[in-house]
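Why should sequence recovery work at all? Because a backbone constrains its sequence more than one might expect. Tight turns favour small or flexible residues, buried strands favour hydrophobic ones, and helices have their own preferences. The token representation captures these environments compactly. In the example below, the structure is given first.
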């Protein structure tokens, strides 16, 4: 039984069949669509450059052929781990042998009193973006709350559509949660150069409304920024309530071990909702919100259920991520948490450079902008954990593969 028909849920089902699991598979998804890739929602799909069909992970015929039953538009509301049974919103009960929780997360709402007005949008599901696209036909003044990846990607698309875009970020720099200062400053400068009004250290205290629609965003300073449409991208909360109510240990997500097992018997969790000990975060329990994490955890769980997981096998895949903004392709590998040193390879002004993060003289992560070679070669530096010559690392003419010894 798979709860959630998104990236992690779909890949669990795919991997189960690849692992020759012969039992029945039922995947239950709250959205009315077959599993699809979310990354394009804030990029090509919002831009209108990619149709929804191109995002669907597998056609209906694949699921039929692989004998994976997919029930869409259905939500799991309770789990009885003792009885190995769950209940759907329509009241029906279904028994399971193993349950994989892959329900992802819900966009965090604004903390202010009025937050769900007309014209206020989130970017998590296809339906969110379809609604936004309809309103974009007439809206011109756009305020984006949150300078993380989703907010910045949306800003880039909306500038291309020649909208007036303001980005409000509470922290003193964009991408503060995920990247180092050098990368933040680079993207800040890029967005400004493309005409985005980037406001840092700016706290939103409320929304101005007229007849149920947003008209502006009120700041702590007392200023109100006019807005015909607001995009909120301030993170997600893991969708784990039914599991927590069933007694699963949770900590900003449902806690799993290195084999993606929750504290409940025969219940696993993968993807955005799984708080897992990550080898690349010094074993710290974290949640990752990435395609890599959902897919690789799905394989571990599928092997576990199919009985093909090796005694020593565990979730230890190197984290990677990407983001497209304007003509910039950012590729990230490793985790920069706890780094104590940073080396910038190449000049950010050239719009092709890499930021290398080190801990104790070893490379732990790279953020590569239009620099795929560093991204590919840098991975080995991380996995091998080798100490590197800092001076050589700083020279873009020295290939990273030469340092991976
Ligand atoms: C706009 C956007 C851009 C992104 N860009 C990138 C990117 O560039 N690179 C990258 O690596 N990652 C990106 N991500 C992150 C990536 O898409 C997620 O990490 C990935 O989708 C996580 O997979 P998941 O299975 O955990 O959750 P999801 O894919 O969200 O799937 C969860 C599914 O479960 C359903 N569900 C929730 N509760 C229940 C329930 N109780 N019962 C049944 N179904 C339920 C949900 O409706 C959803 O369909 C992006 C995400 C978004 C939203």
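From this structural description, the recovered sequence reads:
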């Amino acid at each position: 039984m798979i709860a959630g028909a998104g990236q992690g849920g779909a890949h669990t089902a795919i991997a189960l069949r690849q692992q020759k699991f012969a039992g029945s598979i039922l995947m239950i998804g709250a959205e009315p669509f077959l599993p699809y890739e979310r990354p394009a929602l804030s990029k090509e799909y919002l831009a209108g450059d990619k149709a929804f069909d191109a995002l669907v992970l597998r056609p209906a015929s694949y699921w039929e052929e692989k004998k994976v039953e997919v029930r869409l538009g259905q939500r799991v509301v309770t789990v009885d781990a003792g009885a190995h049974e769950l209940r759907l919103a329509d009241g029906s009960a279904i028994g399971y042998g193993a349950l994989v929780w892959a329900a992802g997360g819900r966009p965090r709402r604004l903390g202010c009193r009025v937050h769900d007005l007309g014209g206020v949008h989130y970017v998590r599901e296809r339906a969110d973006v379809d609604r936004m696209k309809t309103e974009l036909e007439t809206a011109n003044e756009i305020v984006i709350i949150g300078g993380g990846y989703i907010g910045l990607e949306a800003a880039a698309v909306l500038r291309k559509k020649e909208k007036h875009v303001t980005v409000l970020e509470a922290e003193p720099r964009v991408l503060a949660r995920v990247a180092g200062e050098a990368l933040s400053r680079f993207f800040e400068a890029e967005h400004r150069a493309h005409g985005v009004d980037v406001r840092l250290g700016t706290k939103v205290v409320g929304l101005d409304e007229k007849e149920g629609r947003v008209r502006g965003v009120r700041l702590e300073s007392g200023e109100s920024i006019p807005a015909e449409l607001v995009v909120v991208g301030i993170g997600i909360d893991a969708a784990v309530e039914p599991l927590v109510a069933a007694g699963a240990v949770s900590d900003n997500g449902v806690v799993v071990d290195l084999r993606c097992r929750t504290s409940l018997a025969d219940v696993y969790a993968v993807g955005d909702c799984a708080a897992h000990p990550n080898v690349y975060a010094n074993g710290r329990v974290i949640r990752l919100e990435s395609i890599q994490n959902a897919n690789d955890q799905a394989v571990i769980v599928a092997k576990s259920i199919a009985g093909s997981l090796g005694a020593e096998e565990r979730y230890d895949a190197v984290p990677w991520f990407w983001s497209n903004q304007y003509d910039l392709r950012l590729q990230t590998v490793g985790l920069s948490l706890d780094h104590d040193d940073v080396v910038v390879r190449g000049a950010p002004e050239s719009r092709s450079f890499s930021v290398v993060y080190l801990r104790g003289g070893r490379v732990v992560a790279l953020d590569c902008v239009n620099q795929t070679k560093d991204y590919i070669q840098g991975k080995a530096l991380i996995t091998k954990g080798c100490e590197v010559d800092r001076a050589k690392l700083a020279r873009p003419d020295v290939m990273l593969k030469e340092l991976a010894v």
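A few observations help interpret the result. The pocket of flavin-adenine dinucleotide is lined by residues 3-9, 28-31, 38-39, 41-42, 75-76, 102-104, 123-124, 150, 239, 271-273, 289-292, 294, 321-323 (CB under 6 Å).
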